[in-house]
Write a structure and sequence with these properties.
Blueprint: E1 16-22, E2 27-32, E3 40-44, H1 51-68, E4 87-93, E5 96-98, E6 103-106, E7 116-117, H2 118-126, E8 127-134, H3 135-146, E9 155-160, E10 164-170, E11 173-174, H4 212-215, H5 217-228, H6 232-241, H7 251-259, H8 263-287, E12 291-295, H9 302-316, E13 325-328, H10 335-355
Parallel strand pairs: 1-4, 4-8, 9-12, 12-13
Antiparallel strand pairs: 1-2, 2-3, 5-6, 6-7, 9-10, 10-11
Helix pairs in contact: 3-10, 5-8, 7-8, 8-9
The structure holds zinc ion.
Zinc ion is lined by residues 186-187, 203, 205, 207, 210, 212.
C-alpha cells in the first residue's frame, strides 16, 4: 500500500461509491462502500435524461452520499474541477455498455447516450478509477463475491427479468467478451422445435423462436394473463393470488399457481423450463461454472421454479457426474448496486497495487 504523502494520483485509500442507473436513467441510486445492506441514496427524475443532465444529477448524488456518510466533510467549493481526493466509482447501467472503454451503447428509452463516455465524465469529476458495467455484469460480480456464488471463481449468473441475460465471472473476473456483449441470452434460439407454436412466440427483436418471449419473468406473467383469459378457473386463481390485479402478478406467483396445479400456469412454466434448461445445460457444458445463480424476481422461488429448473438442467446431461448447483441469487434487488461498488473497490485496489 502507498503511504501518506504520496502523489495526488494515489487512489489506494479512495472512498468507494456504487451507482445504479435504472429505468432509462430516471432512477439513480448510490451506495458508499462495497457492503451488503449499506445505506442507499436516491434521485428520481420525471423523464429519461440526456447524458449531460444525468451526469449533473450523478455528481450531486455522489457528493450527497459521500457527505452524509462522512467520507467527505461537505461538497467541495471547487466541485467541477478539483475534488480534494480521488473517489473510486462503479456504475451499473440498465442498458448496453462497452465496459472496456466505459462507454454507453444505449440506455433506452433515453436518447443521446449512444457512444457517451460515462467513465470519462465521472473520472473528470471524481478522479477515478471509474468502472461502467451492465446491471447484469455488476449483479454477477456481486453474487460471485458476496452473494450466492461466494467462494467460486467461475460463476454463471442468469437474470430472468424483463429480459434474459447472463453475467459471467470466469477465473475470478467479469468476462465481457470482445464487444462487451457476452451473455446476451435474450435472443438465444430455442429452435423450430421450441415450445408454443412451431416457430415460438414473437420476440421484441422481431424474430421468433427466441428465449426471451418464453422464459423471461415478464414473459411468464404476460403469457399467463393472455392464456388465462379463456379459462375462467385460471383467471380467477390469477386474480386471487395477485390481489385482484392480474397485471400486477409476479413471475413467482405464476410459478406458485403452477405448483398448486393450475393447468394454464403449469403449461406456461413448463414451456419456460423446456426452453431454459437446454440453454443452461449448453452454457454449463461450454463454461464449466462452479455454480449457477438465478437472479431476478424468481430468485426466491426455490421450490416452485428453481428446483424444477435444476432437475431439468440435470436431466439434460445425465452422464455428467458432478453438476454445478443451481441456486437463487442472495442479493436481490440490490445486487447490481452492490456489484457496482465491488467493481469500484477492486479497480481501486488493482490501481493501487500497480502504483506500488
Ligand atoms: Zn429476439
Amino acid at each position: 500500500m502507498a503511504g501518506p504523502g504520496t502523489s495526488a494520483a494515489d487512489t489506494s485509500a479512495a472512498p468507494v461509491v456504487g451507482i445504479e442507473i435504472a429505468d432509462g436513467g430516471t432512477r439513480l441510486v448510490a451506495t458508499v462502500g462495497a457492503t451488503v445492506g449499506a445505506r442507499r441514496w436516491y434521485t428520481r427524475l420525471d423523464a429519461p435524461p440526456m447524458p449531460a443532465e444525468a451526469v449533473g444529477h450523478l455528481n450531486a448524488l455522489i457528493a450527497r452520499a459521500l457527505s452524509e456518510s462522512g467520507q467527505i466533510a461537505s461538497e467541495p467549493a471547487t466541485a467541477d474541477t478539483s475534488p480534494p481526493a480521488p473517489v473510486a466509482v462503479g456504475v451499473a447501467l440498465a442498458g448496453q455498455v462497452d465496459p472496456a472503454r466505459g462507454v454507453v451503447r444505449s440506455l433506452r428509452p433515453a436518447d443521446g447516450w449512444e457512444g457517451f463516455g460515462l467513465a470519462a465524465a465521472l473520472t473528470e469529476r471524481w478522479g477515478g478509477p471509474v468502472v461502467v458495467r451492465t446491471t447484469t455484469q455488476a449483479a454477477a460480480l456481486a453474487e460471485a463475491r458476496v452473494g450466492a456464488g461466494r467462494g467460486h471463481t467461475d460463476v454463471l449468473y442468469v437474470a430472468l427479468g424483463r429480459s434474459i441475460a447472463a453475467g459471467l465471472v470466469l477465473a475470478g473476473r467479469v468476462y465481457n467478451g470482445a464487444r462487451g456483449r457476452a451473455g446476451e441470452l435474450a435472443h438465444w434460439s430455442v429452435g423450430p422445435a421450441g415450445p408454443d407454436t412451431a416457430n415460438g412466440p414473437l420476440c421484441a427483436c422481431g424474430a421468433r423462436g427466441h428465449l426471451e418471449p418464453i422464459a423471461s419473468a415478464q414473459a411468464l406473467v404476460r403469457r399467463m394473463i393472455g392464456r388465462a383469459a379463456d379459462h375462467p378457473a385460471s383467471s380467477a386463481a390469477l386474480l386471487a393470488i395477485s390481489g385482484g390485479r392480474a397485471e400486477a402478478a409476479s413471475a413467482a406467483q405464476v410459478a406458485q399457481l403452477a405448483a398448486d396445479g393450475d393447468p394454464i400456469a403449469r403449461a406456461v412454466i413448463d414451456e419456460a423450463l423446456a426452453a431454459l434448461a437446454p440453454a443452461l445445460a449448453n452454457l454449463i457444458g461450454a463454461l464449466d461454472p462452479g455454480v449457477v445463480v438465478i437472479g431476478g424476481p424468481l430468485a426466491s422461488a426455490r421450490d416452485t421454479f428453481l428446483g424444477p429448473l435444476a432437475d431439468r438442467v440435470r436431466a439434460q446431461r445425465p452422464a455428467e457426474p458432478d453438476q454445478p448447483a443451481l441456486v437463487g441469487a442472495d442479493l436481490e434487488p440490490a445486487a447490481a448496486l452492490i456489484g457496482a461498488a465491488v467493481g469500484a473497490a477492486e479497480a481501486r485496489d488493482e490501481q493501487g497495487s500497480r502504483v506500488e
